[in-house]
Amino acid sequence: MVKHFIICLAIFCVGRSVEAFQSSVGEHLPGTVPITWNLSPDEISKEMMRGAHKLIDREIAASKDLRQLIWKRDFSSKDAYERSIDAQRQQLMTYVGAIDRIAPAANYNIGFGENEPQAQMQRIAAFDDPEVVAETETYAIYQVKWPVLQGVHGEGLLVQPKGKIVAQVIALPDADHTPEQLLGLQTGIPEASQFARRLAENGYQVLVPALIDRSPLPKEKNEQSHREWIYRQAFHMGRHIIGYEVQKVMAAIDWFKQTDRSGLKLGVAGYGEGGLIAFYSAAIDTRIDAAMVSGYFNNRQEGWNEPIYRNVWGLLTAFGDAEIASLIAPRALVVEHSALPSEVEHLNPFGYQPEEYSYTGHKGRLITPPFEEVEKEFKRIDQLVENGFQDRALVHNGKGQPIAFGSEQALGRFAELLGLTTNLPLSNILPTDGRPAFDAKERQVRQVKELEDHVQWLVRDSDYNRNEFFLYRAMPAFKNREWSTKSYHPYFSPQPFVEAVEAFRTYFWEEVLGKFDQPLADPKPRTRKIYDEVLWSGYEVVLDVFDDFIAPGVLLLPKGIKEGERRPVVVVQHGRNGVPDILIRGNTSYYDIAAKLADQGFIVYAPYGLFKGEDQYRWLDRKANAVKKSLFSFITAQHDQTLRWLGTLPYVDPSRIAFYGKSYGGETAMRVPAVLKGYALSICSADFGDWTRKVADTRYHNSFMNTIEWEMPYFNMGSTFSYAEMAYLIFPRPFMVERGRHDRVQPDEWVAYEYAKVEHLYDQFNLRENTEIEYFNGGHASRNEGVFKFLHKHLDWP
User: What is the arithmetic mean of pLDDT over 504-516?
Assistant: First the structure.
């Protein structure tokens, strides 16, 4: 009875102060202007998303001019020029992941007679099939394989002329063409476009590698192509399907250079995806004398709408195709404006729809660009490379229409730039494949599996690489184990570690998440009351972040805040496809966490998450990648603005602002407080674990490799930061994990292992009480019990 009376008295007292508070607040908060729109939560999410797309569209448009500021070309000599662009060449190699040491070429006899000049050539190892695949009067074709990286080989066909070799060419087919088709051993390419055969008949030694194709994986892999399958896992580990195939070309060049005794010219020629690889190979490897690029060259300003496996982190900050062409200079370049195969154009039939919020599976498409765009980008090379410094040609039909790829005209120009005759006749004699049981699909399976195994080796080794990258450099004692011979050691002072971490915080923000350079806008806060409960009122809030881009949310203010009193704030972030309202009422997954915190007297702020609307946020991330940004570039800017605004409110203690996030909100709880030190503590719910394996592990059935979340890979994050490393950036601030044991996001053992590293760090500095993990028997949900205790304890709220 007494307890009931006290509760009623408390409500009565709160009610009296509510009247006083509301009389001064009215329908919007002091210091703000009223919100005039009348939008539903879903419409607010869409408005926020539209503004984010406008922002990144402007960034992409501005990139063409801004990238010129980083180039300092020196045309005084060839050597001076190469030195002046070396930083950009290294940058391109990093962006496409062509960074691993190439394996040495294996030394095998290719099978020629000992008295022949070719006897000293190294053989690129053949299989059990007969070495000679086909033979004509003028050349022989061999099935070959060559080492590239640990466990990674190139495979394809080598054409050996029977007479004098005039030059060496690596001919790259489109991803959906085979080396056999490019040499006329199989049907599928018109004879006039069999440019590898044309070169072979005219005395060129030709290597035709097999590329990873676009054929789809089983439906349970969400209709990913082979190229996307490798791209997704490799991208997160700082590698790329493009880089792997460029390295196959580079390893083949190693072999050519080791075997050539007469200083033959060497060129690369490619069509479609092969054109891309030829183009990038020539830009990266200066041993290539000339390149022919067919069916690829364009301005790349809308490269984000090409297939996902072409997504290159930060590409437009330094490169359009004209800039990549300038990396080839002073060596020669031929661009052929040719049509892409129609079947490639329709592989992804769903066009990008700005207002489309349903999942379509569309991740980009291949369309032959108009000649006007190709010509404009080609002419832009003139603005970058001095006249006469590079021989180059644009081959087209003169009528603005694409021509058949591998034309005699384009090959003739290519030959001319290699210093050879332009007369390249093509006979009607097709070679005949003599292998009794060859299956190109089996070769494709081998090639895909080798790359997958290489990436998965990087995933398994990533823990050691992250320690080398971060922990051992930030705190050498961890590597040296200076205390290991002592039975007892004093706790380290955290200050040196905290100071060392600042460089890694900057790296994480700028190089992994991506950071907007422009200053935040005037927030111009707008508010409107939308809740009026017994213990608190709720206000819709809108803040400006950048032009067109807003940070909306809901602020819950307890009633009865005394004049001059400053209370702690808990920022509570919902998960994927949510809105703030699900944190406040009626959603069993969150157990009304925002409302319950407000009931306990905390000020609560629930921001709208930028991860609602399939596939809009994925496309936003994809666009942003082109200019070295990600989804969290936007989200971090929103939280930065929100923290600044919350800190201006007279009833907020800016030193006691906490973050709690669940699911995608838990992902946010790891990244944003790691960057923004304005958050006094962070709690990650239903998301913590080994992020590298969650994103890139192909064997775990519930990794993002096997789901629709194609935006989850962050370039090279797996080799630099997982959740332990993000927690190191949050340290020494309090940090907590909330984990339902039956949550299928990650296995319990992954979570426990990753958290053990965090606990170990805190314990070394005698700060073990600043970190906790709460396990409970449940799934992908909030429990709140341990979370509330943690918040009360560390925010000093009774």
Answer: 98
